[in-house]
Amino acid sequence: MDEKQQHGYIGRKDDYLRRLRRIEGQARGLQRMVEEEAYCIDILTQVSAMTKALQAVSLGLLEEHMSHCVMHAAQESDTAGQEKIDEAMAAIERLVKS
After folding, report:
1. Which of 24, 42, 74, 94 is 20 to 30 A from 80, alpha carbon to alpha carbon?
2. Is the pTM of this model over 0.85?
3. What is the pLDDT at residue 50?
4. Domains of the chain
């Protein structure tokens, strides 16, 4: 990637960092719940909330990638655009499998 070109998420970097810090706090909360032997269903509920939060970050980053990086590459050439599409599809496949 050209040094002058920025990643698509740069405009929302602070938002992503805030969300990731919140998720980090959720992970610490889950650790504490296990240490304190909390009820299984309560732990699973928090795991579900954390998973949804991570998915929201992932979808936001994917949208930024598609609308910025893929679009930019497609404007450069069909080959570069297709490479970015293939890269995005591989990322989507990994997200769906997780």
Report:
1. 94
2. no
3. 96
4. 12-97 (1.20.58.1000)
Q: What is the pLDDT of residue 57?
A: 95
Helix (H, G, I), strand (E, B) or coil at 77: coil
Mean pLDDT of 30-48: 97
Sequence-distant (6+) residues with CB within 8 A of 59 are none
Report the C-alpha gap between 21 and 2 in whole angstroms. 29
- Chain-centroid distance of CA 79 in Å reads 26
Q: How confident is the model at residue 5 (pLDDT cuts 50, 70, 90)?
A: low
Distance CA 24, CA 21 (A): 5
Please tell me the distance from the alpha carbon of residue 98 to that of residue 94, in angstroms, as a whole number. 6
DSSP at 38: -
For the record, the structure tokens of 24 come out as 């980090």
Check: CB of residue 92 under 8 Å from CB of residue 30: no
